[in-house]
Amino acid sequence: MVEKQKFLVYRKNPGETPRYERYTVPLKPGMSVLEALFYIQDHLDSSFAFRYACRGAICGSCGITIDKFPQLACRTQVTAVKSTKKPLKLPELTFGEVPNDWNQETEILIEPLPNMEPIKDLVVEMEPFWKFYEEVKPYFVREYIDVQPESLQSFEDARSIEHLVYCILCGICWTCPVNATNSNYLGPTALAKAYRFMADTRVDDSHRSVIAGRVSKEDGVPACEKHFVCNRVCPKGVKPGTAIQNTRKEYLTP
User: Fold this and answer.
1) CATH topology agreement for domains 4-124 and 127-252
2) Domains of the chain: which residue ranges?
3) Is omega for the bond preceding 128 within 30 degrees of 0, making it cis?
4) Cis amide linkage into residue 254, ω under 30° from 0
5) CATH placement of domain 4-124
6) Pairing of strands 107-111, 4-11
7) What is the mean pLDDT of the chain?
8) Distance CA 195, CA 206 (A)
9) Does the predicted model carry a pTM greater than 0.70?
10) pLDDT by residue (tens digit) across 95-139?
11) CATH number assigned to the domain covering 127-252
12) How far is it, in rounded angstroms, from Cα 182 to Cα 188?
């Protein structure tokens, strides 16, 4: 007999009130939540919408909320959802009116990412996320030099920013309570990326100053309330909150 798992899934069409629908998915060894979503779309409801790309926890596209804990669907095992210990002090995440008969012991609740406007089902509007990301100018600005190597960096300097480079821009850190109340807040992702480049020894002082000038504005680092929820939910160990703290100490202190 094939073991099955029940899912309670957030559904929303443009212009309509959100609803929750139930689906039963037959399990197979090693099934991820993303694979379960594929089953729902392929066999139960072809109108079901969600994002994905690499299926290997590299692209960040499949970030969703699973049992009130934002995670990457591709790296979350269905059989481990109920036994996984959730981070402490997560904010209350409300997307719609969850049915009162949700069985938290047996049904896996699937919802979109927090603090982003749902477009359809699990697909959210990420335009503000990318807008703020672009504003901090997270890239190198250098004159072209046709001599190799174009730039050098010591092993120690590279290691000091390595964990920041692991950010996959999944948007999960927007679980931050500040993003829930302040639509102008740059957010943990943009601020962590800003620090990643300010702390990079290959970035010149001029560009570093431009980045620091942007993140020092009221809607940047000063808006962070030090909840550190971003650190607790980041699936890649980037610790955006720590990066924001380091920015305060190293670049914004008078």
Assistant:
1) no
2) 4-124, 127-252
3) no
4) no
5) 3.10.20.30
6) parallel
7) 95
8) 15
9) yes
10) 999 999 999 999 999 999 999 999 999 999 999 999 999 999 999
11) 1.10.1060.10
12) 13
